[in-house]
């Protein structure tokens, strides 16, 4: 089974619930949260597990190549097409087709994919034979797909066809308590890969790992631990083995509020403490807090207005 320990408990529970269905799934979330791993896990526990799990990265191929890769082509379809080539839909027959970065698909390809999902059929490039598409489709994106629809860059009808079952993968900051568990898992894997015997992390290294906001999510943590294992010369991964940016990170102390603290005071402290933890990066702070950067800018303007008016941190609403 795929590397399921890197996924959140909520994602695993949802995957088990929907894996037995053939319904199309849309995975959303930031880059590095494990959408590809979750898609593969759903395939491995589905009734289609005896078939192939086939991935197509829609951002990695120009439109003409994406069409050939997805649908295949007949001999003579274009210059250099000397014989028939099966597409990813052919290869994935009876299995699962994972469309990564689906919002990068161009409009003409979106129409062709809509037909696959709606009618369950397609033709190879340069061919006339209509082929039945016997695949379960899982799509993923790290963009705001609703914003892409509103902006006219992604078809609304295709969005609804993909969005049958929606699963949002949490950022690593949203499952921060999992950092030590994930770090230990990656350490064991990379220690074995590099033929090293390591006894975990030093307390200073753990403190740094817990103090970093992990904007690159699980993928960033995985890469950081692999680097540390390769560079480690002792029996434990130490602070000096971690990437330079992590070495000054300090574990974040819990933010404690007294009962009865006004909500606007709690909100201000949460925003200010988060900004301090990420060195003032408002976009990252907003992501960690689950709000928009515009909200942070607006709140800061309100607080500045209070100071100018001589109100300080008023106990009034707002």
Outline of the structure:
With 318 residues, the protein is of the alpha/beta class. The protein has helices at residues 9-18, 35-44, 63-71, 88-91, 107-119, 145-150, 156-162, 179-193, 203-211, 217-231, 263-277, 282-289, 293-308, and strands spanning 25-28, 53-57, 72-73, 85-86, 96-100, 121-122, 131-132, 136-141, 165-168. Mean pLDDT is 88; it is low at 311-318.
Describe the structure in your own words.
α1 (9-18) packs parallel to α2 (35-44), α5 packs across α7 and α8 (179-193) crosses α10. The chain is built from 13 helices and nine strands. The strands form three sheets. A five-stranded parallel β-sheet has the order 2-5-8-1-9, with helices on both faces. It has a two-stranded antiparallel sheet with strand order 3-4. A two-stranded antiparallel sheet has the order 6-7. 43% of the residues lie in helices and 10% in strands. With 318 residues, the protein is an alpha/beta fold.
């Amino acid at each position: 089974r795929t590397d399921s320990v890197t996924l959140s408990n909520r994602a695993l529970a949802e995957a088990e619930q929907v894996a037995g269905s053939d319904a199309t799934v849309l995975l959303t979330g930031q880059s590095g949260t494990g959408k590809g791993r979750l898609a593969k896990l759903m395939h491995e526990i589905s009734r289609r597990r005896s078939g192939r799990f086939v991935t197509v990265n829609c951002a990695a191929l120009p439109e003409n190549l994406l069409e050939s890769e997805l649908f295949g082509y007949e001999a003579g379809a274009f210059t250099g097409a000397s014989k028939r080539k099966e597409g990813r839909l052919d290869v994935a027959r009876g299995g699962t087709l994972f469309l990564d970065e689906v919002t990068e698909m161009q409009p003409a390809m979106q129409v062709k994919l809509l037909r696959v999902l709606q009618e369950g059929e397609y033709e190879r490039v340069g061919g006339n034979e209509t082929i039945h598409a016997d695949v379960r489709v899982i799509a993923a994106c790290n963009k705001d797909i609703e914003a892409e629809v509103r902006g006219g860059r992604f078809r609304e009808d295709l969005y609804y066809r993909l969005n049958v079952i929606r699963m949002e993968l949490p950022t690593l900051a949203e499952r921060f308590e999992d950092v030590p568990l994930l770090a230990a898992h990656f350490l064991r894997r990379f220690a074995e890969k590099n033929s090293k015997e390591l006894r975990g992390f030093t307390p200073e290294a753990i403190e740094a790992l817990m103090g970093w906001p992990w904007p690159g999510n699980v993928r960033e943590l995985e890469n950081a631990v692999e680097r540390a294992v390769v560079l480690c010369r002792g029996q434990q991964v130490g602070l000096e083995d971690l990437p330079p940016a992590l070495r000054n990170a300090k574990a974040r102390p819990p933010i404690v509020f007294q009962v009865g603290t006004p909500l606007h005071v709690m909100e201000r402290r949460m925003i200010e403490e988060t900004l301090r933890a990420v060195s003032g990066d408002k976009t990252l702070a907003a992501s960690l807090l689950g709000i928009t950067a515009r909200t942070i800018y607006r709140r800061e303007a309100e607080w500045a207005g209070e100071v100018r008016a001589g109100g300080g941190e008023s106990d009034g609403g707002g």
